Amino acid sequence: xxxxxxxxxxxxxxxxxxxxxxxxxxxxxxxxxxxxxxxxxxxxxxxxxx
Length: 50
What we know:
- This is Fucose isomerase.
- GO terms for molecular function: isomerase activity.
- Keywords: Isomerase.
- The radius of gyration is 11 Å and the shape is elongated.
- It contains one helix and two strands; from the N terminus they run βαβ.
- It is α+β, with helices and mostly antiparallel strands.
- The longest helix has 17 residues.
């Protein structure tokens, strides 16, 4: 049995988009490096995927 994380990234209109973009990539990478799967909306679904 494997564990899959659901990830939704947002900046709430307060933080710069670039931080949400880089944070999204870093969190996905960290989850995958630990051997887990991650489900996250693709960047083209919403503005920058955030």
